[in-house]
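Order emerges. One example.
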Amino acid sequence: MSASAGSGERAAPAVVLFACVHNAGRSQMAAAFFDAEADPRRARAASAGTQPATAVHPVVVQAMREAGLDLSGAVPRRLTSELARGAVLLVTMGCGEDCPAVPGLERRDWPLRDPRDQGLESVRTIRDEVRARVVALLDERGWGRAARPALLRPARVGDLAAVRALLAAAGLPADDVSEAGLEGFVVAVRGERIVGAAGLELHGDAGLLRSVAVAGDERGAGLGSALAADRIACARSRRLAQVHLLTTDAARFFARLGFVAQPRDAAPPAVQRSSQFAGSCCAGATAMVLALR
């Protein structure tokens, strides 16, 4: 029960009960994703089954481990009236007539396949659908965590394929990005996903800012500016005199960071010999420069 207004007490978090027959697959995945994504001050999850199994399906544990969540210690439990009494919502997992029902408790059913006896690929598909439904529920009820900033870190060799895919999706040159070239890159990571990248090439006492890209669903939150600012700070730390770039459609964005347009042939010869300046893909791009000293 919620505390009265002005009492100084915080209302207890809402409990969402995810339930199926065996509590060994879908309901365990849903509860784990819910607790990982929900604001714990607002809501938390519980899961149970009418005929609980002895353990979570091993293939479910494996698929969830890939998503960064460990269910190896989870134990299926029986749905009791006491457990249901504290919930505000019962979510059942598409188990038909065998699905539990609790009189007086709001219920919705998610028609999900049972992962029992399924291969890993099928369970991955079920897992991803469970996560999408959980996120939609959190958005609907306003129970989600506040958006956390993506983590910026130096790029690693193992990031090459993801960085290239990100650049290609943004319409930027990607073929000339190599494992060695990643040394000058920083990536933005949310969870296990790379959602942004930016590179700085060194050419004498000048730098070349390149490949500033942000995933489509992450744009508009300042991540591109953070990536570019990180590479500019790197250039300052290396005491470079200038940072150059080429852009086809983001001149206004880079101008807000202090870059100004300049003739293409005004860049130092070493910069002009870079793959970005010499390549045909950037032939019509606008050249810009930021003076650092």
User: Anything to note?
Assistant: The first strand starts at residue 14 and ends at 20. Residues 151-291 form a domain with the Aminopeptidase fold (CATH 3.40.630.30).
